[in-house]
Amino acid sequence: MIRDLLFAGHRLSGQGDTRLRRGIALAVLEGVAGAAMYLPLILLLQEVAAGTVTPLRISTCALAMLACMLLRIMAGHIGMPMLFAGAYAMMGEARLRVADHLRHVPMGWFTRQRSGDLSARLTSDLELIEHLWSHFLGSFVSGLAMPLALMLFLAWVDWRLVLVVLAGLPLAWIALAWTQHVVARPGERLIAASAAAQSALLEYVQGIAVIRSFGRFGEAWRHLVAVLDEQHAALVAVEAKPTPWLVSYGFLLEAGYIGLVFAGVWWLADDTLTPLTLVAFLVVAVPVYRQLFEVGLATMMLRFSRRALRRIEALLAVPLLPEPDAGKARSPVDHDIVFDGVRFAYDGGDGAVLDGVSCTIPARGLTAVVGPSGAGKTTLVNLIARLWDVQEGSIRLGGVDLREIGTGELHRHVALVFQDVVLFSGTVLDNLRLGRPEACREEVTAAARRAQAHDFIEALPQGYATVLDEGGASLSGGERQRISIARALLKDAPILLLDEATASVDPSAEAEIQRAIAELARGRTVVVIAHRLKNVRHADHILVMEHGRLVEQGRHDDLLLQGGLYAHLWSRQQVAQGWRVGTM
Ligand code: ADP
Fold this sequence. Notes:
Blueprint: H1 2-13, H2 18-36, H3 38-50, H4 55-103, H5 107-112, H6 115-165, H7 169-206, H8 208-213, H9 217-240, H10 243-269, H11 275-316, E1 337-344, E2 354-361, E3 365-370, H12 377-384, E4 392-397, E5 400-401, H13 407-413, E6 414-417, E7 426-427, H14 428-433, H15 441-450, H16 454-458, E8 467-468, H17 477-491, E9 495-499, H18 507-521, E10 525-529, E11 541-546, E12 549-554, H19 556-562, H20 565-576
Helix pairs in contact: 1-4, 1-11, 2-4, 2-6, 3-4, 3-11, 4-6, 6-7, 6-11, 7-9, 7-10, 7-11, 10-11, 15-17, 17-18, 19-20
Bound molecules: adenosine-5'-diphosphate.
């Protein structure tokens, strides 16, 4: 099992770590030195029995014990940090590998996952494995090495007594195996209950504003209490169910001690054993039993870690978006985007979200995608970034099918600005540099200026060094989006996909965002999902979507003349804003 877990470490992190191997070797040495400490004591007792003991012998034995003790402490002292360093480095690598894998997993996979379950895998499962390697493996290995070494040494003194000491071991082992069998089901229940609890707590905290405003507090609370009650019950079960079997394991293990007394007295009587050897065995057997019991307990933890490991390995086995074969990957030379008979449906969704969409988005210019809510605008734009693959037809970038461009290469060409801009906790500067980590300060400020973000950033308490709280909650929607635009400008990708911010954007901020978008469109292919039609009057090309189909396309004036859906939407928005079309 240990070998399996160690190899699994290599599999997870994609690399072995010599510090971990050395740390384990030192843990073995620690256990052996711990056992060797008893040897001088036993030799001394034998000399006492033989009447050959001298002061010199006593001091030599004391020195030998001291040396073993020092060796044990030193091995632990040097080995432990090695194990920590090796385990943390390996898990750091494993975390990056999981994160990197998830980066290439089709987005559809995420929508099928419960966020609590995924976050449980990424946090508690990985922590459990990390804890296993950093804290557990060393003490498990030394805890096993110590009684084994001690029994080997003692076999040389009296092998019959060693057999008696360990007589209960086979039955105890069966009891331990049964304990693990018994704990399996409550263990599964606990994992499910913990994931449900994590998920429920996350939903509760994220939805607290909605819960309050809709007065659904009682309902949400009851759900939370039920889920936490289940977690509590599962925790109790996981402790209570195996207890009688664990007790039997301890009992069977120590049954050898009673045997030791009986057999010892028997052999004393027929003069094949000295009383002091028996005393030595009676003294030494106690720590042996204690260590073996601890090791038995620890195997329960191994079982849980193994399950956590399987769950992480399952995560790494999620199929990725297919990459083009090495050598066959192509790079787009131009940046026009062509949809050719594209049909797309979400996994588990009802019916096609895009149906037979064919259009050309010209290179270097501003293309707006408009249409009623649910028409498929976001889906269309996300498909350009290949967040999913189309089911029928193809999307070509500069004449190359997206599926023939490697993901890394595609990301070099495409920058995305979502409506729900994700800012990470860190400074404004860190968030901007995400676009290009090596950008110097001047380049960052220049991008921020062009994205109309410089002035409000300077007005923040510490300017660019202001630390944003998680998600950038202290900024308005418009400000977050301008930071995100600056980030995209810094990345300098030739294609920019943008979902115009609608939330908390006042008219002056909106004008600034429009200026920033116009700035972006110079020399780039910009595709923007526009929610306010007045912002797209000057777009080079407008795609009008309805029910997953492209119903009209062209420039603003031509579309108005056509008198179709665009003209209808336009007049509706004009009325809503209290303006008359004629005055525009
Ligand atoms: P729009 O941006 O025009 O509002 P969307 O592209 O967001 O439209 O959505 C088009 C349709 O696809 C809607 O019916 C929506 O419910 C559905 N949809 C969007 N995202 C998903 C998803 N991840 N899984 C399943 N259905 C989705």
